[in-house]
Amino acid sequence: MKYCIHNTRLIIGIADRVIENGSILFDQDKILKVSAHSITDADVFIDGTTFSVLPGLIDVHVHLGMDCSVDPFDTMENTEDAFTSFIAYKQGLQFLRAGITTVRNLGTKNNVDIIYKKAVESGLVIGPRVYAAGQPLIMTGGHGQPMGTEVDGKDEVIKATRQRIKEGADLIKIMATGGVLTKGNHPGAVHFNVDELKCICQEAAKASLTTAAHAIGLNGVKNAIKAGVNTIEHGYYLDKETVDTMRDLGIYLTPTLLAPTLLQKNSEHIPQHMIDKIEEIEKEHRKSFRLALERGVKIIAGTDAGTPFNNPGQLVEELKIMLEEGMTTAQAIESATYLGAKCLKVDSLIGSLEEQKLADLIVVKGNPLEDISNLKNIQHVFKGGVRLYPDQIH
Questions:
Q1: Rounded to two decimals, what is the model's pTM?
Q2: Is 105 strand, coil or helix?
Q3: Segment 25-78, tens digit of pLDDT
Q4: Domain housing 365
Q5: How would residue 273 be classed by pLDDT, with cut points 50, 70 and 90?
Q6: Which residues make beta-bridge pairs with 34?
Q7: Do 265 and 239 belong to one domain?
Q8: 3-class SS at 393?
Q9: Within this chain, do residues 294 and 192 fall inside the same structural domain, yes or no?
Q10: Among the residues of 64-166, which ranges form H helices?
């Protein structure tokens, strides 16, 4: 079956490329034609007047199976894997309803995310495209213990990385510093030494996998960069030298600005140890984001969904904060589409409205370039040319 959405605004997803009053033709697989003119060869026509069509959104930092409670690590530690998988399934539908057709999952206990991904790919359940890290690698006593694999020294990190590859991970997640959610764990503290981090990155690269480093403190960020990671997650503390190195090496930054914002907004419900940490480090977070933006670092959009009060599908709220801190609307949309796909090394398949790419696209009412909130006005969600919302997800 061929669909044509016509008389519509096509926001391509790359830089500020837009076709006003254009048409897009796709089948139940790929995009067949993107045009500024009318298209007549279709089975189903959708009048896109007053609508905008965009690539399906990509949230590059989520935690499927974390339940967004006030202490999701505690919940995860005391929850059976089967129950965690049901949480992941529900969250996948929430992502799709919000127009998020692809997620990069950066940590779930016992590789539940890898199993969930296989269920989606097999057609057993409906869900977004999932690029799964499985259990993160952490040092003994490090951040994320309820879902991590504790390893120390070169031999252990090499073996654990190889094991994750064997289990089907799409990338390797590393906890390079402490974190906010782990009790008794200072978020700026360095975890793993450079040699350990290098071993992880080298093993991942042998298998053509990328690496994502949770890194909050500046020294931890620097160690991760020296080791050769592909993305820095959070990056609360950055300086000019560091962001310039990231820019020159093509290392992506996922700032996850929404996560600490939600902690602060709900501080009366959050455990005190988390609030104490956030109050200490958050004042530097947006400053670091602005510096990275000004110096030309490639910034991608991730929410850290699964953390307290951070329900799946709030990517637009992340983009709004990016706009507050200096991004243009076109840059924000690109960070949640094309650049996300580039980071995943799947930009030949998804991330922009281009012919022969997979037909992952969303239709929204209004013009998101004028008001980013219009990305919430979801009318249709297609994944691989199959209309999931509103047809199959309610």
A1: 0.98
A2: strand
A3: 999 999 999 999 999 999 999 999 999 999 999 999 999 999 999 999 989 889
A4: 3-55+351-389
A5: confident
A6: 24
A7: yes
A8: coil
A9: yes
A10: 72-77, 81-97, 112-121, 153-166
Q: Which 8-state DSSP code applies to residue 56?
A: P
Q: Please, which residues have CB within 8 angstroms of residue 270's CB and are 6 or more apart in sequence?
A: 70, 263, 308
The CATH number of residue 95's host domain is 3.20.20.140
Residues 184 and 194 in one domain: yes
CA 103 to each of CA 60, 65, 184, 360: distance values in angstroms, whole numbers, following the listed order: 6, 13, 30, 13
CA 259/CA 280 separation, integer angstroms: 15
18 and 97 co-located in one domain? no
DSSP 311-331: -TT-HHHHHHHHHHTT--HHH
248 and 374 co-located in one domain = no
Q: How many domains does the chain have?
A: 2
Q: Is 54 helix (H, G, I), strand (E, B) or coil?
A: strand
Task: Judge whether 63 and 105 are in contact, CB under 8 Å.
Answer: yes
Q: Are residues 134 and 271 in the same domain?
A: yes
Asked if residues 164 and 137 have their Cβ atoms less than 8 Å apart, the reply is: yes
DSSP H or E run through 244: helix 240-249
Q: Are residues 197 and 330 in the same domain?
A: yes
Per-residue pLDDT at 182: 87
